[in-house]
Amino acid sequence: MATANDRMATTEMADRYRAGVLKYAQMGYWRPDYEPADSDILALFRITPQDGVDPEEAAAAVAGESSTATWTVVWTDRLTAADTYRAKAYKVEPVPGSPDQYFAYVAYDLDLFEPGSIANLTASIIGNVFGFKPLKALRLEDMRFPAAYVKTFDGPPTGIVVERERLDKFGRPLLGATTKPKLGLSGRNYGRVVYEALRGGLDFTKDDENINSQPFMHWRDRFLFCMEAVNRAAAATGEVKGHYLNVTGATMEDMYERAEFAKELGSVIVMIDLVIGYTAIQSMSKWARRNDMILHLHRAGHGTYTRQKAHGVSFRVISKWMRLAGVDHIHAGTVVGKLEGDPNMVQGFYNILREPHNAVDLQRGLHFDQDWAGLRKVMPVASGGIHAGQMHQLLTYLGEDVVLQFGGGTIGHPMGIQAGATANRVALEAMVLARNEGRDIWNEGPDILAAAARDCLPLRAALDTWGEVTFDYTSTDTPDFVPTSTPA
Amino acid sequence: MTSQTDPGTTAVGPAASAPPLDLEAALADSQVEELLATLDRDLVGLVPVKTRIREIAALLLIEKLRMGVGLSAGPPSLHMSFTGNPGTGKTTVAMRMAEILHRLGYSRKGHLVAVTRDDLVGQFIGHTAPKTKEVLKRAMGGVLFIDEAYYLYRPENERDYGQEAIEILLQVMENQRDDLVVILAGYKDRMERFFQMNPGMSSRIAHHVDFPDYEADELFSIAELMLERMQYRLSPDAARALGEYIDRRRMQRNFANARSIRNALDRARLRQANRLFDRRGAPLGREDLMTIEAEDIRASRVFDRSETTVEGSQ
Amino acid sequence: MRITQGTFSFLPDLTDDQIRAQIEYCLGQGWAISLEYTDDPHPRNTYWEMFGMPMFDLRDAAGVMTEVQAARGTFPDHYIKLNAFDSTRGFETIRLSFIVNRPLHEPGFALGREEAAGRTIRYTIRPYATDRPEGGRYS
Fold first, then answer.
1. By C-alpha distance, which of B148, B154, B143, B145 is closest to B186?
2. Contact B84/B184 with Cβ under 8 angstroms?
3. Cβ atoms within 10 Å, residue A231
4. Are A435 and A442 in contact (CB under 8 A)?
5. Measuring CA to CA, how many Å separate A59 from each of A4, A87, A141, A238?
């Protein structure tokens, strides 16, 4: 058991740099007196120390391993302004309700990081430290970036405001759908789904994350058929339409080639997957900015490290990184759909993506005040097991600046894909109209939908099929996975 | 009209068969009584004005009750003219009027947009209509208060654009009674001439309210009320001086009732500050900071012209 | 065909009362309202003609409705849309935009295809109405 004396930072220089092994706290990584500077990058970790390791030492170790320290004393520290470069764990508090877990706050000097590089940032903050033995588990909960650091990033190439101005679509969430089945359709059949959905009333359709260039459909084929569908739908409705052409590929050269072809065909939007990596994302962001292209990001793979409460990286941190890295769309949860998402947590992600400034909001998991310094806003995408009957809840929880993606809820409609799209669009417009009229859509939602369905057969069929217009919504308040009766 | 009901009941009509209408409840419901009470409390004097406002409120409340039981004299015309000398409370009462109309359900938003000729009339051809319409759009749902409305009409210049503004106003006053109440304000004599020359305007004004000049004791009460709100007080000598000041000022040119009192007090505060400043070094207390002395008032030019004191002041 | 630009195009045409309610909502948010009209409804025709200046500082929908009626009277066969503009930092853009008047007959758009290299096609969308000169397209 460590005593208070052990934790005290040793000030005698000679002692401090004598060869051997010191506790991290003694090396100067635990600084309870430290006042974080406005220019510091701050990180909040949830730590679960091994038995017998006290929380302050564990916090100091995290600070050390994510900045300058190694396991032993090195004299070469004395050739640097080591105290500046040392990250400082400045606060440790127990996690309410979890006796073996602690919140550790760590401050990093700005000069520890390369400007404008998520790869460099993450190599420090989540580099070695997550495998560190004295910790049973470690989770990066939240980060605060000073304006000086934020300003080294270009951010989203388009942003919510410009996206809406380009699409000429205002005042309501945008509507999308992922082409289903995910795999196996030929280019020609795939384009049929795209045309039907856009013609029926959706604004966007989307490639799935694992649609790249497989034997059943070469990517060029897909792009050509999809753009025929997009243009046909635009001419049939008078609206700007788009299909997220997934340009994810094995190499940057492949991705650039695909993106260039999408541009040549006149697409307004391209898509990448989170699994391509932070550097590739930033490269594609720069490309999108150069080419007036909206950049859609599917968060494929994030569940492997965001879902467990004790270990990994919270999605709110991923959201912050992606706003810096510069994407225009990101899948950020639905609350009511088939995928993980507590309403408060999801609203926290949405606020990070959409607000000019985040105040501390512990209920929504926002532990720091974050000024986005004029960085554009990212459009969150709600996708996965949602349908027209939930429109009032989606609008209440998620607000207006969001893409609602009804994949199964469009393509699985009994009267066909166009009817499915129309049902969603009518439900959405009726709900926005009612909300603006001052009606209590949370409680009157089902009535509003039923009334709209009287003028719209497809909506009536949708409500009949997926039933449950009056859902038992109480279960969505729990933080864990909430199954709904919606087909995927 | 055919009716299946027994003639015995139809003869008595709703008044007898329905429960009696509760005027008290309707009044309480509209919270108008409360507004009228604050009007009484906050505004010194103006008894004839307050009486007229109360009458108008009563008329509108009864009209609402009548509409509730299916009786109607047609949508009431609400446009008004407020006449009186400057500083007699026309703008203040107009704001209260807007609120009363709002509470009674005759004005959706109850805001007041106060304008003069310059806000309505343009400088060149094609300028006036958009200006006037712009003002009207801002006032919709509330009350448009046009101060010194007679300046809209300039017969000496037959190509004056004011006539255009008047015509647009008339159209809206007639066709959009639900959307807008217009109050024209100004000196009584000039307003009367304006109405004589513009019968169309005159016929659309339902209520004429005349604002009398304040009596000397009313002006004194107004001064006391103003000082109290600014956390000042008068020494006994200063109170006497202010009484004399009011008597003299009322007889002079450009007297603007409450506005002149407000200006006089502002100047007295200035002199008080200078007086305190000049005796630097002497101890200064809260009392000193609050008190206006006679010399702060008697230094006014109003006392210059004659040495005779006026008897009988407060 | 029915052009479905604007926030409420999939609903039956809004009644004046419904339009008034939306205007009240916009004014309540502190947004400025403007009207625009066109007879070229191309999806990328960004700049419709302005029907007067944007209306700032209005308190009640009646003022806007007066302009809507005036616009309909002047351009009965044009598309007329109502925009609400939000000057809040972070937005500074249109927040609601919906059609309040449309021509009786909407002929729609032709989709032109120009075959280019490989299987690439260059697309162009042309409103049938623009075959006729401006001002006489839907009468």
1. B148
2. no
3. 23
4. no
5. 15, 11, 14, 58
CB contact under 8 A, A234 and C122: no
C-alpha B262/C-alpha B214 separation (Å) is 14
What does R_g of chain A's alpha carbons equal in angstroms?
25
**Phi and psi torsions of B141, nearest 5°:** 85, -5
Closest CA to A408 of A227, A219, A232, A197: A197
Phi, psi of B176 (to 5 degrees): -125, 50
C-beta of residue A12 within 8 angstroms of C-beta of residue A73:
no
* Edge-first strand listing for the sheet containing A88-95: A88-95, A98-108, A41-49, A135-144, A312-313
Q: How far is C36 from chain B (nearest CA, A)?
A: 17
Cα–Cα distance, A446 to A470 (Å, whole number):
6
Q: Is C36 within 8 Å of chain B by CB? A: no
Helix (H) or strand (E) holding A228: helix A219-237
Residue pair A46/A139 in contact (Cβ under 8 Å)? The answer is yes
Dist. CA A42–CA A113, nearest whole Å: 12
Q: Number of Cβ pairs closer than 8 Å across A and C?
A: 107
Q: Which residues of C touch A228 (CB under 8 A)?
A: 121
Residue B83 near residue B186 (C-beta atoms within 8 A): yes
pTM of the model: 0.86
A243 is catalytic: no
Q: What angle do CA A391, A393, A398 make, to 5 degrees?
A: 95
Residue B221 one-letter amino acid = S
Cis amide leading into A181 (omega within 30): yes
> Which chains, if any, share at least 3 CB pairs under 8 A with chain B?
C
Cβ contact C69:C50 at 8 Å: no
> Which residue in C41, C84, C91 is closest to A238 by CB distance?
C41
**End-to-end C-alpha distance for chain B, whole angstroms:** 70
Helices (H) and strands (E) in chain B, counts: 15, 7
Structure tokens at A86: 């040392």
Domains, chain C, with CATH or none:
16-105 (3.30.190.10)
For tokens 């503009």, name the residue: C85
pLDDT in tens, chain A (488 residues): 444 444 444 556 666 666 666 788 888 899 999 999 999 999 999 999 999 899 999 999 999 888 887 767 778 878 888 788 889 999 999 998 888 999 999 999 999 999 999 999 999 999 888 888 889 999 999 999 999 999 999 999 999 999 999 999 999 999 999 998 888 999 999 999 999 999 999 999 999 999 999 999 999 999 999 999 999 999 999 999 999 999 999 999 999 999 999 999 999 999 999 999 999 999 999 999 999 999 999 999 998 898 888 999 999 999 999 999 999 999 998 887 766 678 888 999 999 999 999 999 998 999 999 999 999 999 999 988 888 999 999 999 999 999 999 988 899 899 999 999 999 999 999 999 999 999 999 999 999 999 999 989 999 999 988 866 444 443 332 332 233 333 33
Residues A223/A245, Cβ–Cβ less than 8 Å: yes
Q: Say whether A133 is catalytic.
A: no
Residue of C10, C17, C26 to mutate, interface with A, max A Cβ within 10 Å: C10
* A contact chains, 3+ CB pairs < 8 A: C
Q: State how far the alpha carbon of A168 is from the alpha carbons of C6, C35, C96, C124, in Å.
A: 8, 15, 10, 18
**Token pair listed for B61:** 């409340």
Q: Which residue out of A88, A91, A241, A298 is catalytically annotated?
A: A298
Q: What is the C-alpha to C-alpha distance for residues B89 and B275, in angstroms, rounded to an integer? A: 32
Residue A334 neighbours by CB under 8 Å, 6+ apart? A341, A346, A382, A383, A384, A385, A386, A394, A398
Contact A210, A222 (CB under 8 A): no
- Burial of residue A396 (CB within 10 Å: 0-12, 13-18, 19+) is middle
